[in-house]
Write a structure and sequence with these properties.
245 residues; single chain; 22% strand; 2 domains; Alpha/beta knot; 5-stranded mixed β-sheet; 7-stranded parallel β-sheet; 10 helices; alpha/beta; 60s Ribosomal Protein L30, Chain: A
């Protein structure tokens, strides 16, 4: 068990640097916070380091153990009231997975929405999340927390939107979008597999490229003069409709 007491320690500086996307990408490591996230990562054998202010917590994990004080925990945490357990997770390059169903995030900008979408996808049977390179960082702290650890079970492929569509079209995947101007209602969709649901930017909707590539465009009928839904909520409705027996 290692013990670090100085916030100026080089390893502590390194951990703090993982809050930046460029360093996560460079070192292929992610700093996570909270016992639930740490436990999920440990179950999947991707936890490399456990960090805590309590020795009893460190003893539960068969990985590198680092005992720190409250000052250090406050230094490397992004929350107002840090939890007593943090960890370092190894990030592996995800590959495009063929012959399956997908969710495609087209310039999603809100990390909370992204996290909710990933969590919903896993809950309803979609493991393959395609992310356009102009979307918010998948490993943003808010995104990670919103997924409640399910992100570690997802296959996330990040690429330029045009390249993603080339891969999808090669497989004859049915591209499904939502549009307030569409004439087909969501309940009229009869696709059961080999589909990709596209989710657009919160303010501007899906891109022109996604509109061009869409095979099916549907509307979710709304009542009481409600004009639109949050993108994660709309996705939940569409995915449930497609996945239900």
């Amino acid at each position: 068990m290692e013990k670090i007491t100085s916030i100026n320690n080089e390893y502590i500086k390194y951990l703090n640097s993982l809050h930046q996307k460029k360093n996560r990408t460079k070192y292929k490591e992610l700093l996570i916070e909270g016992k639930h996230l740490v436990d999920e990562a440990y179950k999947l054998n991707i936890l490399k380091v456990i960090i805590s202010t309590e020795e009893t917590e460190l003893e539960k994990y068969d990985v590198r153990k680092v005992l720190v004080n409250d000052a250090i925990l406050n230094k490397i945490s992004t929350t107002v009231t840090p939890q007593k357990v943090m960890g370092v997770v190894k990030l592996e390059q995800q590959q495009f997975c063929f012959n399956t169903d997908y969710c495609l995030l087209d310039n999603i900008s809100d990390p909370g929405n992204m996290g909710t979408i990933i969590r919903t996808s896993l809950a309803l049977g979609i493991k393959n999340i395609l992310v356009s390179s102009d979307s918010v960082d998948v490993y943003n702290e808010k995104t990670i927390r919103a997924t409640q650890g399910t992100i570690f079970k997802a296959n996330i492929y990040i690429d330029d939107l045009e390249n993603i569509y080339k891969l999808l079209k090669k497989q004859n995947v049915t591209i499904v979008t939502t549009d307030l101007k569409a004439t087909k209602k969501i309940e009229e969709l009869s696709i059961k597999n080999n589909f990709c649901i596209v989710l657009g930017n919160e303010a501007n909707g899906i891109s022109e490229l996604s509109k061009k590539m869409a095979d099916e465009s549907v509307i979710i009928p709304l009542k009481n003069d409600v004009e639109s839904l949050n993108v994660a909520v709309a996705y939940s409705i569409v995915l449930y409709q497609l996945k239900k027996e």
